[in-house]
């Protein structure tokens, strides 16, 4: 593999479920008005940027964000960029998850143990990493989801799993709607650009 890959990962804009604190996973919600506004701000931010390829999760909120941020450009849809499949917890708030009988067994090992009728974080890492490892050199942008992006970062950089109070995903870093993370791969080595969340 020759040449460097510059990869920009973008979390989609907000939906009604984001605003109400409901975990949507594979539930195919569209952007809300706020999310559309965030995507238009991304369009301004990305103006003048050139990308060899544009990818998006095939879930509507990611596709809409990509279309509004980079209008008129061809987008490659890849289901491996989907959000974490929350199974029985889809549409739940955190307190509703905590009241479910399957919550405690899952929390004992969320990387290895799938949520009821859903995925484990390790499952997400494997599909995200398979996608990332296939990317050619060049400048690529991908519109995905919060847990999916952060799981890729954990896998690429060996970040620790750290249980968080009142938050079921054991990652210290959060990623807001419409935020970016910029990575570089050269010679098979991945690095992260400083300040890439803003």
Automatic annotation (TrEMBL):
<dbReference type="InterPro" id="IPR051695">
    <property type="entry name" value="Phosphoglycerate_Mutase"/>
</dbReference>
<keyword id="KW-0378">Hydrolase</keyword>
<dbReference type="Pfam" id="PF00300">
    <property type="entry name" value="His_Phos_1"/>
</dbReference>
<dbReference type="InterPro" id="IPR013078">
    <property type="entry name" value="His_Pase_superF_clade-1"/>
</dbReference>
<protein>
    <submittedName>
        <fullName>Histidine phosphatase family protein</fullName>
        <ecNumber>3.1.3.-</ecNumber>
    </submittedName>
</protein>
<dbReference type="InterPro" id="IPR029033">
    <property type="entry name" value="His_PPase_superfam"/>
</dbReference>
<dbReference type="GO" id="GO:0016787">
    <property type="term" value="F:hydrolase activity"/>
</dbReference>
């Amino acid at each position: 593999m020759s040449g460097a890959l510059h990869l920009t990962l973008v979390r989609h804009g907000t939906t009604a479920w984001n605003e109400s604190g409901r975990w949507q996973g594979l539930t195919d919600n569209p952007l809300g008005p706020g999310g559309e506004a965030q995507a238009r701000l991304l369009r301004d931010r990305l103006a003048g940027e050139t990308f060899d390829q544009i990818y998006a999760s095939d879930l509507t909120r990611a596709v809409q964000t990509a279309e509004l941020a980079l209008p008129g450009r061809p987008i490659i849809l890849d289901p491996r960029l989907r959000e974490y499949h929350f199974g029985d917890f889809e549409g739940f708030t955190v307190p509703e998850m905590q009241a479910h009988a399957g919550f405690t067994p899952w929390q004992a090992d969320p990387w290895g143990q799938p949520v009821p009728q859903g995925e484990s974080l390790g499952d997400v890492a494997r599909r995200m990493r398979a996608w990332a490892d296939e990317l050619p050199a060049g400048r690529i942008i991908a519109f995905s989801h919060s847990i999916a992006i952060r799981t890729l970062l954990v896998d690429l950089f060996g970040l620790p799993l750290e249980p968080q109070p009142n938050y079921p995903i054991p990652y210290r870093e959060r990623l807001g709607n419409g935020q970016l993370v910029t990575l570089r791969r050269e010679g098979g080595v991945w690095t992260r650009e400083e300040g890439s969340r803003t």
